[in-house]
Here is the input.
Amino acid sequence: MQAIRDRLRELYGSPVNQPHGHPIAELVRTVLSQNTSDTNRDVAYARLRERFPTWEEVRDAPTDELIEAIRPGGLANTKGPRIQAILSALGEHPDLDWLEEAPRGEAVDFLVALPGVGRKTAACVLIFSFDRPEIPVDTHVYRVGGRLGLFRERASFDEAHDEMRRVVDPDDAYELHINLINHGRAVCRPRPRCDECALRRMCPYWRRLRATSLPPVRAPRRAPLGLTDASSSLSASARSSAGRAGH
Ligand code: SF4
Here is the structure.
């Protein structure tokens, strides 16, 4: 794990978290970020806050007005009601500041019990608001982490979250989250660029790829002394098969 961290650090630097201390804002921003770009999310979030400055106003707004405000973020008909459902579940005066000091299990359990909130959103709230050591497993972290063997490649997202938290040093959580995303965008894309990847020597996916794509062993040009043409060709063919089977 440290070797992966260090290699990623050489490539992408050592990003430092700057927790902002606003968990409800993070929660709403994460809902808005689903299936859209960061730019569109930011536009939607800015419009939301401008139109409804308090969380109570967002919660109590006519839903069609809220939908209109966040429309640039896409899927507004789904996200608007979801944001209001979350805020309604937070009581009369929505407040999540207590999550900063709450036991980790209690904090995660509370967040994932909110309407439409899963492990990734819960992890985003805890790490970006309070620098609590969680690793949100988004699509990049899931793809790159699975290929690098940080968790089973076909693990559920919940299992991936649990494994990442188990194998990653809490002090490295933010850095690894950001740098796995950087690597997923730059090199380990859906169609990975393994030939130019600085992590390939430590990557089980690459080793597997290499083993299955080795060229077959070629027959020698001339038969070795003492062998007939027929036995030479049979020998080469057998070694070729053995070579493929052995990798
Ligand atoms: S070697 Fe390939 S699969 Fe492994 S991390 Fe690099 S790009 Fe991804």
Summary: Residues 220-247 form one domain. The two ends are 25 Å apart (CA to CA).
